[in-house]
Amino acid sequence: MHIDVGRQIGKDPWFITGISILLFLGFLAVAGPFLVPHDPYDISFSPLHPPSADHWLGTNDGGMDILSELVFSLRNTVIFGVTAGTAGLVLGVVAGLFSAWAGGWTDQVIMRLADIVLAIPSVMVLILVAAFFQPSPVVLALTLAGLAWPTTARGVRAQALTLKNSLHIKAAQHMGGSGRYIIARHLMPELFPLYLINFAAKTRMAVFMEASLAFLGLFDPGEKSLGLMISYALQYYYLDIWSNWLMPPIMLLSLLIMGATFVTISMEKIFDPRLRKTV
Amino acid sequence: MRIWKKNWSIPVFVYLAAALVMAYASFRLPNLLPGDFVTAMYAGSDVTLNAEQEAELRAFYQDTHGFPGYLRNLATLDWGYSHAFMAPVSQLFLQALPWTLLLMGTAHVLSTLLGFVLGVEAAWRRGSLLEKAVVGIMTVLEGIPEICSGVLLLLVFALSLGWFPAAGAQMAYADHTFGQWIADVAHHLALPLATLILAYLPGNFLLARAGMVMVLESWFVLTARAKGLPPVRVRYVHAARNALLPMVTRFGLRFAFMITGALVVETIFSYPGLGTLLFNAIAMRDLPLVQGIVLFSAIMVLVVNLGMEYIYNLLDPRVGHAY
Question: In chain B, where are the structural domains located?
Fold first, then answer.
């Protein structure tokens, strides 16, 4: 089944577009720091310089090279998204599988906890934490993950419950397979598509949150982030900077979120048997 | 977001617990900070406090009455004093709230209605070229965050073309008649509203369309068609009502996103709502104000979502009987 789905998804133009965008941006984020011409924290250039041969996108108000700043911002935004996405996914999968496998009271407690966490608007908690503690972005990403796991946990639990009663799991149980063995070798691999969808959706959400929080001024002002760049550039809207300073971070942020959106929507369409008909 | 199974009171407990968690976090977090955070925070702010104000603020954060006392203060609108704006936090909050409700409420109602109708029509015309184009456009729009669309709209329509005002919610000190005032408010509302609708519409559209496509496959729709009913009646009276349900279920999950977006959009257009107030409070490190806004917006979100739980059960009687 998975192989067939893999072939199907390879033909979906949305998926191909999305994954190409993400791979390109991922490459920029990883290799970018070695490619950029200047140190993004170097303030020795003349400020607000229009684009030139040395500074392709000019310099900002602090005399920093905008192109280098852009690449480092993208990198930080991607790191935030991937950290929150991975941590949220792992928490959700562990909670969901454990809940489904244990059943009974454990299941009840975990799921009620998930309900409560799901009801809390995560952006409010992040604002509170960021305003009081001014933590590093990694801590904020992990906080976000701590608030974002319940959706994954619910999805994983529901799928795991149907799997739990299937014949091959019963067979494994009767052969004397331990709970840990069955979870690790049967349940976890079979739910693989769910992980991909959830990871893409969570990363998308985290990138959106990071940009919004940075834009609202909740990050260290010295930090490089796409949201912060937009917020700074917007303060100089009356100068002729929009093409070289304001638009690049806007385009990159949109591309990043667009790529994740395309991949999520495409995977949801193909992996969800009910939705598959709607393709 | 359906957590109501056997007992109607379960959602109330869940949301109450969530509200208490938020309130407790807001109560405990300041005390977890090391050292004298009042001095440290306001050292990095534009606001200068005198010794008396600083002592007052410290007393405000001192844990004297415990959590019950804190809750009592919250209930009596005693949310502290904002030294940046020289006003009680509750007063600032209540001044900003109507504008946020106007902006978010209008955006939400319009984008839901529009998304629903477009989604139903698109599902009905599935496979046609127009439908494919619309789905494509909506998918692309779904990938553009409010920060980007908002800044672009601001640059093009307010700063470059000058068709709409770039900031505020109404003309200051203008001597307007009531009709002129309404027109003025609408004129100021247009751009932030357009940004939010651009952000909310695609999600609503895609959900409504997916739901409707599934409903259209069911037998009762075939029966309705076979009876020779007019297509509009089949679409809206028979099928679309069932496609509404997924939109309501997903509402709670989408709401957190919407709040984040609204905060950003208000800031971009300097709209005098809670988002802009929060932005200014953060910039000036005005802790009581940040806390007040965060806590009460969160509680409003919880109340709205709790209401949605019950609305869902009214809309879909099957849920109540299924368990």
Answer: 87-322
Structure tokens of B98?
A: 């109507």
- Burial string for A180-193 (b: 16+ CB within 10 Å, else e) reads eebbeebbeebbeb
Residue among B143, B148, B252 whose CB faces A262 most closely: B143
CB-based contact (8 Å) between B289 and chain A? no
| Cβ neighbours around B155 below 10 Å, total | 18
Which residue has tokens 């599934």?
Answer: B214
C-alpha dihedral (A118, A120, A126, A127), degrees to nearest 10: 150
Residue A125 and residue B283: Cβ atoms within 8 Å?
Answer: no
When the candidates are 3.40.50.970, 3.40.50.300, 1.10.3720.10, 3.20.20.80, the CATH number that belongs to B87-322 is: 1.10.3720.10
Dihedrals φ, ψ of B82, to 5°?
Answer: -90, 115
Q: What is the pLDDT along chain B (323 residues), one digit of tens a residue?
A: 444 455 667 778 888 888 888 888 888 777 776 666 666 666 666 666 777 777 777 777 765 667 777 787 777 777 777 777 778 888 888 888 888 888 888 888 898 889 999 998 898 888 888 888 998 899 888 888 888 888 888 888 877 787 878 777 777 777 777 777 787 888 888 889 999 999 889 988 988 888 888 888 888 888 888 888 888 888 888 888 888 877 777 776 677 677 778 888 988 888 888 888 888 888 877 888 888 888 888 888 888 888 877 777 777 766 554 33
